[in-house]
Amino acid sequence: MNFGDETGMEGHGMMMAEQQQQQYGNDEMMMDAEGGGGGGYEGEDGMIDIDEVPVTQEDSWAVISAYFEEKGLVRQQLDSFDEFIQNTMQELVDSSGDIRVSPELQHMVGYNDDEDADDVQFGETKPVFEIKFGQVYLSKPTTVEKDGTVTNMFPHEARLRNLTYSAPLYVDVMMNQYRVPRDINITDPAEDMGEAESTEHAKKEFLGYVPIMLRSLFCVLSDKDDTDLSDLGECIYDQGGYFVINGSEKVIIAQERLSNNHVYAFRKKQPSKFSWVIETRS
Length: 282
Description:
The protein has a domain at about 70-250. The chain has 6 helices and 12 strands. The protein has helices spanning about 1-35, 55-70, 75-95, 115-120, 155-160, 225-230; strands at about 40-45, 45-50, 100, 125-140, 140-145, 150, 165-180, 200-210, 245, 250, 265, 275-280.
């Protein structure tokens, strides 16, 4: 009987120990949850955040290698050119404003007085032509042959023939014709021209040529695989990011400089009369 009681007491003690161990395990789980669910580890000074773990040189080079494997060496050049063609170029055209021109007075035989000649030609008013630019369009890189035919251009051909690898640029143009008093200042954008006498629209008027950066979204090589690149005379390891101007490869060198019209404060090295120096450029 006593043996059985001792066994029961021993079993009861084991159950209490298991409950305490389970409770201790639950407390550890609660501590982990409060500490971020495994977001750190416990050191001599207590819980340490994983962000405070020192980054080794091997870790740094692993990140750098992964970046260049995905982006390459000239991704910043390609992204900058693509942004210019897709957005910046249209923004520049939209912000350029309208162009207003008026015919110049012509010399008339028998009229020595400019006012008399002015009255004969225009009277009390003068014609004004206002030109507005709209949507811009960029075609594929092409070249015009001597016989006038237009053919597609490839970078390797531009190198061999000393040509510029470029694409024609077109723009929608609208022209309004007004008749205004002679004393009005047509160069002032605030001047009201009144109602237009006539309006003409021209779609996709040729504006000029834009050099195309190799391997950009607007280059003919952008969607080619290694086999096609070899057939076109291009190196499969060439990452692009440059232009072909008159047969020569040209690259834009990125430079960092302080932006204009901003105030910069620099701490002066002591001993000095001033503790801080303010500088601005315009």
